[in-house]
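Quick check before the chapter quiz. The format below is the same one you will see on the exam, so make sure you can read both the input and the output lines.
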Amino acid sequence: MFSETSATILIIDDASESLRLLSELLQPTYRVLAATSGTAGLRIAGNQPKPDLILLDVMMPDMDGFDVITHLRNDPDTQDIPVIFLTAMTNISDEERGLQLGAADYITKPISPPLVLARVNTQLEAKQARDWMKDQEATLKAQVALRMKENNLIQRISIRALAHLAEIRDPETGNHILRTQGYVQRLATGLARHPRFAATLTEGYIDMLARSAPLHDIGKVGIPDHILLKPGRLSTDEWVIMQTHAKLGSDAIEQAERDIKQAELDLKTRMVFLSTAKEIAHWHHEKWDGSGYPDGLAENAIPVSARLMAVADVFDALISPRSYKPAIPFKKARDIIAAERGKHFDPDLVDAFLEGFDDFVAIAKQHLDAALIASPRWTN
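Here is the expected output.
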């Protein structure tokens, strides 16, 4: 049974005698509200606390029951209140019309008290069950949202920790991972409506891309110290070894994919994330004209994620001081990127970079390294 103290029933009927009979019948068990017109009934239905059930007369002068239920169903605040029609009509088409408009049941006049009580109780119990299900669903959604938030946080922390492994072994990079992450996100957002990229650069993909970006140089953990930490330029043989960091990084991420599959955690979002991270790690040194490494891919054969990372990575390398070179001023770095349009970089990505250049400078300044601040040419 529905709780006798909590159920509120609204009766909408222009016939005073019908209102009196129904009120006397229901008041011993339920809280009863009454309205003698459709307009007044809609006003009461929209107030708090909302009624749990509405008994609605069909034949009324100002608004008939069909008009009233149409208004109720079109209002988000009242659309879920169950309605039982009260009618003296016996035309089956009218009953069908009412049910199509969303009525839960029909009670014909003159009323039968036991029938009214039974049908009222049935609808209230059904509503209680629906409300319970909604509460459970809301609770479940909240728990899922919390778990997803926790998983996202763990994922971000794990990515940052892995990225810092490479950063610790190459201390000159400093906040490089934060800056390149910001560049990639800004560049992708600027291209999201471009005809060539709109289908790929969805909001979800851009978020995944930004999360994956810090892992672009994770393969450097496999490069020997005498090469990775060499204070000057690399020899030809050393450069060949350094180039292997791209494949080392993608191989490590690919192994993680296999481990996840073996652990039966093959969740789509996780696999997409790893796939994106693997693309970036493996191909972010490829060039639009095919002269990059490790596979010599050209143009659209290079994944979009890797093309975006290439622009971000080169720009940050240009403006950052290294043991073998000073930092290049922002404007000169911009000119170098522009000159590589159609050669090193996808032409449309360069156009987006140039358009958002001030934002790239702001990102660089947001994540300063001591070495950047100390560079006398950095702010020029």
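If your answer matched, good. Residues 263-268 have pLDDT under 50 and may be disordered.
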